[in-house]
Amino acid sequence: MSSGRVVVVTGGNRGIGRAIAERFVAQGAKVAVTARSGEGPAGTLTVRADVTDAKSVDLAFAEIERELGPIEVVVANAGITKDTLLLRMSEEDFDSVVATNLGGAFRVVKRASKGMLKARWGRVILISSVVGLYGSAGQINYASSKSGLVGFARSLTRELGSRGITANVVAPGFIETDMTAALPDETQAEYKRNIPAGRFATADEVAGVVSWIASDDAAYISGAVIPVDGGLGMGH
Fold it and tell me: Domain Ketoreductase: where (predicted)?
């Protein structure tokens, strides 16, 4: 259980991030979400933050600490896509996705880790993707940013593992979101044929894994990549 813990979920206003925030609220945690726009779910504190800007992150986290207390669990979930094939991908397409998905995790975790070091307890959870290790045509920028989170978590584990802080990666596969719902039926069917489970996940299934990693039951798991993908990326 995460009861009473102070949890921050970046990009917690929609999709997987929102489901994660809702799960922690249901467990009795004190939950803040960062968002560029929109609001987090009921029972959360929403703060504005741009994860590509260290000053913005610092101000947001200072506000969270004033309102809720020292941050104990950070879920780096904020991410963007700018999909296109390599030869059409601009420098900006590549740089902006890496700056948000990988650089954003760096800024957020660096800021959150200060309080965790003082407390000698913390959970760092990085939301990656099956694409990070499996690969996906048209997503060189996104896949690079998401696989980078694995090296990040493993290096952080070696730096902070002796201080009661764990760092793990959750790698979701295809999730039922507005984005997948908008795909043509035949495209959805083709994706499902490649997934051993034969279906997309619910965002709540990802949230359940994240909340477990944040719990005391997972205290001896660090530097792990935990797939939540119905078997799609097995062995990758």
Answer: 5-178
